[in-house]
Design goal:
Layout (H helix, E strand, L loop, with lengths): L2 E9 L6 H12 L9 H27 L6 H20 L5 E9 L4 H10 L4 E6 L9 H12 L7 E4 L7 H18 L4 E7 L3 H5 L4 H15 L7 E6 L12 H10 L4 E5 L8 H17 L4 E5 L6 H22 L1
Helix pairs in contact: 1-2, 3-11, 6-8, 6-11, 9-10
């Protein structure tokens, strides 16, 4: 029985241009999972304000981080998938497994990935959203899209997915290794700030477990690094609009740290599997500048896991039960 594994990330514009960014933002911000504002009000905001005025600004930001003809998110995501596929082929040579990268929004869609895998003869599919902490705004949106695609099929394959891995021991160890490597190369700062992508506080009040997952990730990582309460803290970035989002906010936290007298801090983004606009342009760009402008001296960004060996091993650990289930069920 041939199998397929699909790694799913959020998505990216096809080019750092206003036109390409508008196409991406239109699809992304039209998803009811992402924005839970009353529909008519939100569509007016989206089409009259965000797409005309925000898209050019976002395009300029993308141009600062663009890697030749591809975005960092797509580049590192694809390298991660390719690396995992190679390792699985080496460790499970008897298995017939194909791998795909898909995005919830934009090109290389979930629909295309499913079509390709089914056309190649796959009878079992496993979907791994690259969002360690579950949120309805990201993980549930992947689930929605998978179901939308399968709703068009009469013969639906056996499929499963991974809901989250925010406290998986191999994930925490991979994060810890990346921080230790950073410290070995650059020295340890006075504070480790773990900046997670934010969501509206209302989402959590309505039952989204994202904040709890972020706090559990941060606490587990601090424990793995043997940090006391004065050596680390958590914050949330990338808020949009005037509504209250999860706090403390990363930008205000960094300014406060600098003004309190801290000179050297390390900052990482555990919610992001690979580098993207929010890590490179926002954190290591804009937020970095806030720290220096307010009296800080050294802002050291700890890179995402990207396509590292530890990240590839984590992905294999997360897929292991699916990979080995074939032998258990059909031996």
């Amino acid at each position: 029985m041939k199998s397929g594994i699909v790694f799913v990330n959020l998505g990216t514009p096809t080019a750092p241009t206003p036109a390409a960014v508008r196409v991406f933002l239109k699809q992304f911000l039209s998803d009811r999972r992402v924005v839970e504002v009353p529909r008519l009000i939100w569509l007016c905001i989206l089409y009259l304000i965000i797409l005309p005025f925000r898209a050019p600004r976002v395009a300029r930001a993308y141009r600062q981080i663009w890697m030749n003809d591809i975005s960092p998110l797509r580049y590192f995501s694809q390298r991660l998938v390719d690396g995992v596929a190679k390792r699985v082929a080496e460790h499970y040579p008897e298995q017939d497994i194909e791998f795909r990268l898909a995005m919830t929004y934009g090109q290389i869609s979930i629909s295309v990935a499913i079509e390709e895998l089914l056309a190649s003869g796959c009878e079992r599919l496993f979907f791994l959203p690259l969002f360690p902490q579950y949120s309805a705004t990201t993980t549930a949106a992947v689930h929605d899209e998978i179901n939308r695609v399968f709703s068009r099929y009469r013969d639906i394959p056996q499929w499963s997915w991974l809901r989250s891995y925010h406290d998986h021991p191999v994930y925490i160890e991979a994060l810890a290794q990346s921080v230790k490597k950073h410290w070995a190369e650059s020295g340890q700062g006075e504070r480790l700030l773990m900046s997670f992508h934010g969501i509206p506080k209302r989402n959590v009040d309505l039952g989204d477990p994202y904040q709890q997952h972020c706090e559990e990730t941060a606490a587990a990582l601090a424990k793995a690094l043997n940090l006391n309460a004065d050596q680390w803290q958590l914050s949330y970035q990338s808020r949009l609009g005037k509504a209250e989002w999860l706090q403390p906010y990363t930008d205000k936290t960094v300014i406060a740290l600098a003004q309190s007298g801290l000179k050297k801090i390390d900052v990482m983004c555990p919610a992001f599997a690979v580098e993207c606009l929010e890590t490179l342009e926002e954190i290591d760009g804009e937020v970095h500048e806030y720290f220096i402008e307010n009296g800080g001296e050294a802002f050291r960004y700890v890179a995402c896991l990207n396509d590292s060996e530890s990240h590839q091993k984590l992905m294999i650990s997360l897929c292991k039960s699916f990979i080995e289930e074939k032998n258990q069920l059909f031996s």
